[in-house]
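Quick one, tokens below:
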């Protein structure tokens, strides 16, 4: 299977047509030959028909230059280096697709919102901002856009129903505000070869009284972390020293905030049941009323950011980082910690992003077999003692196309064409093979991924399973993501460094979140869908109510529970 071609080779193929690219279908045919081939859910005739639609719809904008931006991950690098030049050759619209840090994307977006200056014609920003976009109304709602000013440039073959993440990008008003471009989840990662070794299994059962397997609860994860840390795994092809049962990161850095806002608290059991997010209390611990107005973050206002489940979540993360992880992990950021499991000394990791899959299947690394299959697998993350059926159990990133109201109509129309091109059925299967960040059901079910599944460690099985519904981004309870995300890394960092206890850090965090909510409420800028804080009352009042927040349990370490990975996969397939 040919998964990659260079942008240079494709550009040469396009130029070989010898005519202006937007004059006819020849440039598109060259692109399809050079880059797509059979890696599409559309047959060749349907691919050409979709490309012809783009050629015709783009005709009024030929010669226009537009700028779009996204964070720097493999999927977006492919768009910027391969798909953007192809789009220009086919349509005549020149796209500068900038790649910058995730925090920088949010900063640029925030600046455009505050100043009205059109910095970029479109953004790929996380759907975590859905509550921000819905309340401030500074992003075009795509439902009305596609029926109005964007109608002539909306692909009849877009097939919104095929996108798996639309619930993440839809506001409480039922309107679509963003179009998913890439998605990846944080899952459990483990050394399948070690877990299936008979001596290892026997030793574990002798010590803990139950079978070694994929942990269902945090108790089992902790036992497995303890068991592997410092263990000589040379008999099973691993290192004799330096083995660890957990991997994480703890540097006081903005990426530490993602570690927790990306649903760590919900994995522990903080918040309420509900899909895609807990309601009325979400995975940040923010409560909303029946009109979706945020009313509090601290327990004394009905929130859960500092309740017993949240404290348990932070406490366990710190304990596991200190006891069962490489010492250097405490000083690492997200980006620095990501590649470590692939180096071959980590037995398991609960908080592992599937965006690392491509880097973890590189031939010749210690976690790969000679036949190209991985020695590791991914599975659903275990849940904490406060978790209950119906709660989300992890985070799913959904980088999504967003059109700002401040962007001139014609520029937004041209950018919308590009957004649809890079998410189109023609190109999506190939793009997914490069980045492994799925957005379309048809792509997930494509036969090429059935063939490739054995080499991807469970990624395809996960995305084809009903389990994926329990993984979702930040929801609509958060009215201003850029402002409310800031206090997380600073306060969690205080707990990580030992400057504050987890309880003290979370008390400070929820108070800072409420200060932001209070400022928005006083400003009145979000009108009758903005925050309206509850009065402060004794915490016990809220602890006595059903659902979140919750009081501390007497036993936070029940018996460990595991499941066979192979049986788990069978249950999904059935």
């Amino acid at each position: 299977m040919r998964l990659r071609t260079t942008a240079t080779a494709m550009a040469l193929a396009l130029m070989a047509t010898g005519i202006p690219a937007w004059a006819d279908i020849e440039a598109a045919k060259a692109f399809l030959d050079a880059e797509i081939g059979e890696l599409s859910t559309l047959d060749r005739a349907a691919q050409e028909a979709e490309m012809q639609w783009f050629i015709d719809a783009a005709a009024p904008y030929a010669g226009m230059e537009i700028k779009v931006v996204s964070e720097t991950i493999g999927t977006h690098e492919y768009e910027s280096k391969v798909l953007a030049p192809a789009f220009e050759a086919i349509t005549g619209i020149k796209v500068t697709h900038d790649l910058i840090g995730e925090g920088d994307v949010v900063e640029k977006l925030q600046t455009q919102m505050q100043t009205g200056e059109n910095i970029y014609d479109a953004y790929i920003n996380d759907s975590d901002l859905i509550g921000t976009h819905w309340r401030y109304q500074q992003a075009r709602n795509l439902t009305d856009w596609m029926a109005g000013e964007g109608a002539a440039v909306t692909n009849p073959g877009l097939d919104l129903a095929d996108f798996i993440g639309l619930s993440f990008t839809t506001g409480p008003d039922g309107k679509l505000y963003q179009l998913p471009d890439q998605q990846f989840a944080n899952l459990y990662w483990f050394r399948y070869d070690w877990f299936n070794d008979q001596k290892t299994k026997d030793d574990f059962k002798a010590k803990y009284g139950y079978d070694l397997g994929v942990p269902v609860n945090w108790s089992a994860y902790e036992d497995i972390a303890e068991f592997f840390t410092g263990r000589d795994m040379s008999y099973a092809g691993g290192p004799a020293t330096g083995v660890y049962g957990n991997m994480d990161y703890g540097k006081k850095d903005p990426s530490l905030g993602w570690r927790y806002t990306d649903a760590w608290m919900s994995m522990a059991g903080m918040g309420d049941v509900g899909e895609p997010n807990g309601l009325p209390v979400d995975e940040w611990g923010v409560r909303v009323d029946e009109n979706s107005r945020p009313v509090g973050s601290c327990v004394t206002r009905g929130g859960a950011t500092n309740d017993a489940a949240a404290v348990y979540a932070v406490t366990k993360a710190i304990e596991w980082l200190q006891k069962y992880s490489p010492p250097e992990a405490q000083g690492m950021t997200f980006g620095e910690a990501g590649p470590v499991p692939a180096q071959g000394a980590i037995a398991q990791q609960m908080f592992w992003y599937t965006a690392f899959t491509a880097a973890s299947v590189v031939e010749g690394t210690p976690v790969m077999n000679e036949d190209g299959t991985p020695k590791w697998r991914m599975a659903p993350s275990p849940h904490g003692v406060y978790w209950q059926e119906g709660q989300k159990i992890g985070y799913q990133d959904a980088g999504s196309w967003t059109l700002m109201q401040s962007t001139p109509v014609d520029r937004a129309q041209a950018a919308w064409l590009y957004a649809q091109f890079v998410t189109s059925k023609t190109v999506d299967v190939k793009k997914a093979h490069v980045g492994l960040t799925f957005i379309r059901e048809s792509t997930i079910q494509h036969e090429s991924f059935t063939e490739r599944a054995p080499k991807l460690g469970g990624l395809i099985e996960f995305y084809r399973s009903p389990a994926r519904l329990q993984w979702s981004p930040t929801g609509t309870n958060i009215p201003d993501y850029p402002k409310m995300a800031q206090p997380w890394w600073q306060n969690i960092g205080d707990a990580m460094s030992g400057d504050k206890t987890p309880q003290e850090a979370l008390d400070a965090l929820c108070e800072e979140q409420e200060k932001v909510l209070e400022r928005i409420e006083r400003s009145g800028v979000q009108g009758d869908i903005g925050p309206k804080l509850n009065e402060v009352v004794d915490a016990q009042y809220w602890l006595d109510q059903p659902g979140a927040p919750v009081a501390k349990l007497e036993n936070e370490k029940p018996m460990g529970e595991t499941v066979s990975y192979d049986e788990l996969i069978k249950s999904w397939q059935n």
